[in-house]
Amino acid sequence: MGKTATAVTAVPQVLVVGSSWGIRSTFHSLMAILTIVLVVKAISLTHEGGITWAVSNTPDTALSSSSSKCDLFSGKWVFDNESYPLYKEKQCTFMSDQLACSKFGRKDLSYQNWRWQPHQCDLPRFNATALLERLRNKRLMFVGDSLNRGQWVSMVCLVDSSIPPSLKSMRSIANGSLSIFKAKEYNATIEFYWAPLLVESNSDDPVNHRVPDRIVRVKAIEKHARYWTDADILVFNTYLWWKRPVMNVLWGSFEDPDAIYKGVEMVRVYEMALRTWSDWLEVHVNRNKTKLFVVSMSPTHQKAEEWGGEEDGNCYKEERMIEKEGYSGNGSEPRMMRVVEKVLQDLTTRGINVQMLNITQLSEYRKEGHPSIYRKQWEPLTPQQMANPSTYADCIHWCLPGVPDVWNQLLYAYIFQL
């Protein structure tokens, strides 16, 4: 495929002749009817083929829709070093050292050159100016853990180069929990709020959140949610921080010496928290204003044997993606995804529509897209780690430019459908 693909149905013009009832006029009438039938059939076939997302040739109109049959999340990765990456790592003003793989020594940069190609349609090419215009006087907010923060960094990088230095800013409030990128000319903000479990927990500090015993208050969300209330587009994620057999649940406050603690099984406590979140959405979200998205679980690649690699290996030294269609590693938990789907279905019955960005399968293939050892190390490496680099390889987060840029292209497609 080229840089952009345009789905066009050619519609011939039909000439309506005068009202004479002669043979010549009848012939023209029959030809006109036949032409109309052929045009209708062509449009029908086009719809049956799933042409849903067509990229406009004009920069101001990035997306049009002619059907609802195309699954944007079902497709394949196509190498495209002409169009990708969509930005340069060094040129992004607000790039994170956790994700800047080239800066920290990665030499193979082919992970930056892959384009996601849905099977039956094309994703629109990202247009930063068009997005900023759509976000004029609005707040786009990502809420969740470090994977959602990576998607936020990606979105900031995607628009960064289109804004002069004097017309953009970055600041943090709420003890560092809320980071706000602002495009001043558009009065638009792209924000990230740290809430890895969505509800309150003892991991809510945006810096010091690694604790041996994770504790959640599954019925408490207002501490975080008050910062989300007025957002125009909300993009949530929460998954990885729940991945432990049992989670300690707190009834009461952290300061209350008589508070009750109880261990609850992973999937059950996950559903309890999502129910609290969904109840908050039902009560507080302005249904005429705020658009809601949930990003599905981001897969990890911590066990190479799952894709036929070495028994003790992981994503370290990986330079090729997984080519087996439909591949799924054990790092993804279908039971938890079913919980999310059930909660979203229940919300629909209550008049709240939340669009799922199902990035799981397309990201499963990208075992080579993680930082591995090519990122800033927040603590000095031990001699044992230096002797065996795979022991400290990051096979959870994603290099930028890279996979999260595609997540944002999917989000971009939906934003222009709103």
TrEMBL record:
> Which controlled-vocabulary keywords does the entry list?
Membrane, Signal-anchor, Transmembrane, Transmembrane helix
Q: Where in the cell is it found?
A: Membrane
**What is the protein's name according to its record?**
Trichome birefringence-like N-terminal domain-containing protein
Q: Which PANTHER family match?
A: PROTEIN TRICHOME BIREFRINGENCE-LIKE 34, PROTEIN TRICHOME BIREFRINGENCE-LIKE 9-RELATED
**Keyword Transferase tagged:** no
Keyword Transmembrane listed: yes
- Residues in Trichome birefringence-like C-terminal domain copies: 123-413
The primary site where this protein sits is: membrane
For membrane topology, the record states: Single-pass membrane protein
InterPro entries for the chain: TBL, TBL_C, TBL_N
Taking every annotated instance into account, which residue ranges of this chain make up the domain Trichome birefringence-like N-terminal? 69-122
Q: Name one GO cellular component term.
A: Golgi apparatus
- Molecular function via GO: O-acetyltransferase activity
The UniProt entry's sequence similarity note says:
Belongs to the PC-esterase family. TBL subfamily.
